[in-house]
Specification:
With 317 residues, the chain is α/β, with parallel strands linked by helices. Helix content is 51%, strand content 13%. It folds into 2 domains: 178 residues, 3-Layer(aba) Sandwich (Rossmann fold), CATH 3.40.50.720; 120 residues, N-(1-d-carboxylethyl)-l-norvaline Dehydrogenase, domain 2 (Orthogonal Bundle), CATH 1.10.1040.
Length: 317
């Protein structure tokens, strides 16, 4: 992790919910001063206490990121109810308000009126296109989407998605920042609905759903196909490298051997599922039989997920 330069020391996080707090912790781990802002009075201050608790727990479990102690990282964090104070001195602004186009557009207009031209304005949106969320801004060349994967502290991928006017320099500076704080940034060359992660994820979900719905496999067993099969290798190599390694002479050889089979199977896929209540009834019931949908069971499974992700992140490191 490279050293933070004096010109690039302060990052403003707008919104103190789960994603805002996670981003704050990621940036703190890289030694940045972080100013967290929320327009609800007292919320940013409350977020500080939650971040402090989490940093201390991570340190105790010996999985705290970065070279600074929990106390040192927490000392770099401040909370603000005043937007101009929260933005003062920042070189990078990470927006983390709820997923609503109007709300985000309003936030960006307010932010733009307080910062200089050189400040990068970044959104955490998971599904809104940069050309839409930044449409009301005067200077869109410094705007970018930095879409994290939940929970960002353990899952390090960040999708960097440019606005059509975003400059290569802004992409490069954002990429360098994400590397410095220990994330794994993937650069999209242009915007597309769903970005890359959700497009791939939805393709997997759609076929898994169809297989369950058509009575070919159970909910439990289709999840096994991923966790004990595809997921084992996808944790460290992607689909392109998988193909490259799965034929004696690499990707070209793989395509010669399997292209016809791939095309045949892909052409047999059914239409996009409706995911409607009626259609979903039996799938939802099957899932809830495995993991009841009350808070106690769901919280326990989320806790298990995060613990396993921590272990996997450590192993990958």
């Amino acid at each position: 992790m490279s050293t933070v330069t004096s010109e690039e020391r302060i990052i403003s996080v707008i919104g103190s919910g789960l994603i805002g707090r996670s981003w704050a912790m990621v940036f703190l781990s890289g030694g940045y001063r972080v100013k967290i802002y929320d327009n609800q009075p007292g919320q940013a201050m409350k977020a500080l206490q939650e971040v402090r608790t989490q940093l201390e727990e991570l340190q105790q479990a010996q999985i705290l990121r970065g070279e600074l102690s929990a106390a040192e990282q927490f000392s770099l964090l401040s909370s603000h109810d005043d937007l101009s104070q929260a933005l003062e001195g920042a070189f990078f602004v990470q927006e983390c308000v709820f997923e609503d186009l109007e709300a985000k557009q309003s936030v960006f207009q307010a932010v733009e009126s307080h910062v200089s031209e050189s400040v990068i304005i970044s959104s955490s949106t998971s599904c809104l296109l940069p050309s839409n969320i930044f449409s009301r801004l005067q200077n869109r060349k410094r705007c970018i989407v930095s879409h994290p994967v939940n929970p960002p502290y353990y899952v390090r991928l960040v999708e960097l998605v440019p606005h059509p006017e975003t400059t290569p320099e802004v992409m490069q500076r954002s990429h360098a920042l994400m590397i410095r704080v220990g994330q794994s940034p993937a650069r999209l060359r242009k915007e597309v609905d769903g970005f890359a992660l959700n497009r791939v994820q939805y393709a997997v979900i759609a076929e898994a759903w169809r297989l369950v719905k058509e009575g070919i496999i159970s909910v439990q067993d289709i999840d096994l196909v991923m966790t004990e099969g595809l997921g084992m290798r996808y944790a460290f190599i992607g689909p392109m490298e998988t193909m490259h390694l799965n034929a004696p002479e690499g990707l070209g050889d793989y395509l010669k051997r399997y292209r016809e089979g791939m095309r045949r199977v892909l052409s047999s896929f059914g239409p996009v599922p409706e995911f409607s209540e009626e259609e979903a009834k039996t799938v939802v019931q099957e899932m809830c039989d495995l993991i009841p949908n009350d808070q106690q069971h769901l919280s326990a499974r989320r806790e298990r997920r995060d613990q396993l992700l921590m272990g996997l992140a450590k192993l990958k490191k």
